[in-house]
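The following block was generated as part of the benchmark described in Methods. Ligand: beta-D-galactopyranuronic acid.
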Amino acid sequence: MNEPFLFKLCSQFICSLIAIFALASPQVRADEPWQANPDTVARLTKQRSEFNYDEAKVPAYTLPDPLVKSDGSKVTDADDWNQTRRAELMELFRSQVYGRRPTTPYTIRFDKTAEIDDAFDGLAVGRSMSAVITVGSRSYAFPFVVFVPKKENQKVPAIVHINNRNFISLKTATTEHDPFWPVKSIVERGYATASFHTSDVDPDDKTRYADGVRSFFADGKPPPDDAWRSLSAWGWAASRVLDHLETLDVVDATQAAVVGHSRGGKTALWAACEDTRFAIAYSNNSGCGGAALSRRALGETVGRITEVFPHWFCKNFADYTGREKHLPVDQHEVMALIAPRSIYVTSADEDLWADPRGEYLSLVSASPVFRLLGIDSIADESMPAVNQPRVVGHTGYHIRSGAHNLGEQDWKWFLNFADTIVKQ
Ligand code: GTR
């Protein structure tokens, strides 16, 4: 063997070792700024002893490399990513995790059902809307509420909020402060905002397929194993609300964020993968099937989530119960699919069910893709301390003290991040 050849062989070997180690499970140092409180670990373990909350018991894992194509070759540049690898990953997530959306042609119209012209002392116009989707002679409608700040000669960014709790009507939104969707604060910060309820699109109930938009598109036929499930249907609805925002003169729909908490956070991430018009995805405490890495199996697992919520993921996802290492993807690749656009991920200190470290590491593990696309992102494997938001380039993260929830403090830090993205 001649020397240059040997040298090339050795450096290729070293490069592959680096690639493997870069994606292998990181060691959690003893002096990490954030560690789960041992009392919380003990309490949750007592409540649900069949699940793991202990960092020391997370299995060693190697994440699939988002920059290695299905033929084993490395993604060479941004074009290669955009033209080949991104499509491969979308196909894997559609077929193995979230299911495929229908391709049935439809028309959509937006009916105004109510309006308040002087919401928040004249700060905004609020409207109740109905999105009416028509296929042939059949229609399906879901309501949403939209607020637009009254600003002259200035387009504003927008936030689409996925509501998986109680529907907040136009009237309630203007008269009662709800930290889950704090409309007044959002509008005061200069954003338009719209919100819809998940169950109005596809009931969040495994027995009610017949009443939702998935059944509407399938004309009542049962869904094939790889068809979309509720998370994807809710994300699709977020895109339809964005369609409406695009029609408003005062909104700059190229500066739109999609926001959700928990199951809504899972939805927000996948919505931004499917619809590249979203400039920002904000996943709040989304956990398993959202931001958290499936391979860590800390807190909620693939087996548990697919058993209790079979209507959220396509059937294939359940096949990875207890065998997460065989998943051809992991959730850091959801982050990669959103790159080079912006992502904000949050956790809550007591919410170990959603695996805060797994949520953070999935954002970090997408950094090679951000780098390839020329955008800065969080790459430090060490988590920030509690209540210390970290923002790098197009990514942001915070772990808030307290429980599983989306509240005023989360919104405040998220909007600080969004300001750095949309108001430059
Ligand atoms: C839980 C579920 C989580 C999360 C949460 C929520 O029961 O296990 O995955 O989605 O619900 O949406 O509040």
